[in-house]
Amino acid sequence: MQKLHLLSEYLWLETIFWLICLLAVAFVVNCPVRHLLLRGSYKLLSLVDLGQDTKMRTAIRYLANVAPVVIFSFGLDLIPGIQPVVATVVQNIAKAFVILAFAFILSTLLDFIETLYRHRTRVKFRPVKGLIQIAKIILFSVAVILTLATLIDRSPLIFLSGLGAMAAVLLLVFQDTLLSLVAGIQIASTDMIRVGDWIEVPKLGADGDVIDIALHTVTVQNFDKTITAIPIRKFVTDSFKNWRGMQETGGRRIKRSFYIDQTSIGFLEETDIKRLSCYRQLKTYIKNKQEEIEEWNQKIRADNSIIANTRKMTNIGTFRAYVAAYIKNHSGVRQDMTILVRQLAPGAEGLPLEIYCFTNTVTWKMYEAIQSDIFDHLYSIMPDFGLRVFQRPSGSDMQLMLSNVQNRR
To answer: Given a cut of 90, is residue 379 above it in pLDDT?
Structure first.
């Protein structure tokens, strides 16, 4: 009775006493709420195979902190001796804290949704990180407006009406963000880039795999293990190459030429035809070609004594047929895709003979091995057709020429 009389006599002691009691109640309520929420989150995460993920646990901790703040805010009106102005200020601060807490909770939930999305194998390559970041920007923008309006005890419409006058300033300050936002939406809607794609951006020195797509940048790990960060808007305004189509098709193109010395091109003699007829890849070709040429010569009654009046087999044409047959029987070449052996326009470096085909693998190492194997064989077999590869004269060629001249003297 004496203590209660003392409290009633000194009002400030009574106020402090009930404040301590209110804080104790808020603390006591916080412990079981936090415990129950955390246990529930652990069970939920274990059900979706994300038991070690900390994002959802962080959201639960934010939510648990809201309970004591709400209890303290509503209980403040019951404490005697608290000035209405002080109670209003404290309650506004508590409301602002709750708004920010829920903003952080929703932000963490967005991160958790992104984690769940990336664990789905069917859509793991589609970029969603940029969209998540856009949602966070909108979320925190709204949260800041509501927080400021709550602290000064005014309507949020006041801030929204002021934003109209600040639109020009905001456009200037957030210009890069807005451009990146539009570019990110275009990329996501058209599926231009995915995480894991091999892309080339020669202007920016990027050539490698996409490892991250964010709001402002696309991160590329180059094949030399360096990292290149490319502004995302560059993929809308500038050109780039995406190798995803090649990877999905399962065949990588070989488009490569070797140059033949044009002075080595000529007609085949009978002895050459008999020798080349022993080649398995050329038996059918030579037989059909000879029948076609003989029929044509007989039809026009050609004079065999003049070469210009007749048709004859050439070493370059026979070699081209051999190359086509060799590629069609190569185990590393896709037979269901385009196979082409053609001559390009001759130039100062000789006659280009281009090989156009697709390997049956997209692995870089295997692709290079198959391509090298094809050209190793063709360079080695070319002299059998009386053909030479064009090569610009080097120092050793000049020494050989000079030694021949000296020997002749």
So the answer is: yes
Instruction: Tell me how far apart the alpha carbons of residues 11 and 170 are, in angstroms, rounded to a whole number.
Output: 51
pLDDT in tens, 336-359: 999 999 999 998 889 999 999 999
Take residue 51 and report the two structure tokens written for it: 């038991």
In the three-class reduction of DSSP (H, G, I as helix; E, B as strand; rest coil), residue 208 is classed as: strand
b/e sequence 379-398, b meaning 16+ C-beta within 10 Å: eeebeebbbbebeeeeeeee
| Max mean pLDDT range (17-21, 106-110, 260-264, 301-305) | 260-264
CB burial of 320-350 (b: ≥16 within 10 Å; e: otherwise) equals: bbbbbbbbeebebbbeeeebebeeeeeeeeb
What pLDDT, on the 0 to 100 scale, is given for residue 396? 66
The mean-pLDDT minimum among 1-10, 24-33, 249-258, 269-278 falls in: 1-10
The strand pairing partners of 167, in sequence order, are: none
* Cα distance from N-terminal residue to C-terminal residue, the chain: 138
Local structure of 305: helix, strand or coil: coil
pLDDT at 54 over 70: no
* Two tokens, residue 106: 């929703």
- Residues 44-66 have a mean pLDDT of 62
Query: What pLDDT sits at residue 41?
Result: 63
d(CA 205, CA 203): 6
SS3 200: strand
- Two tokens, residue 233: 């808007």
Edge-to-edge, what's the strand order for the sheet holding 340-343? 253-260, 351-358, 340-343
Residue 75 parent element (H or E): helix 55-75
Tell me, letter by letter, the H, E, C secondary structure of 213-231.
ECCCEEEEEECCCCEEEEE
In whole angstroms, give the CA distance from residue 323 to residue 321.
5
Nearest-angstrom CA–CA distance, 233 and 178: 10
Instruction: Give the closest residue to 213 by CA, choosing from 124, 113, 139.
Output: 124
* DSSP secondary structure string for all residues of 306-356: SGGGS---BHHHHHHHHHHHHHHT-TTB-TTS--EEEE---BTTBEEEEEE
Model pLDDT, residue 351: 93
In angstroms, the CA 403 to CA 371 distance is 38
Nearest-angstrom CA–CA distance, 264 and 389: 9
Q: Which one, of 102, 76, 78, 79, lies nearest residue 89 by Cα?
A: 76
pLDDT of residue 353: 95
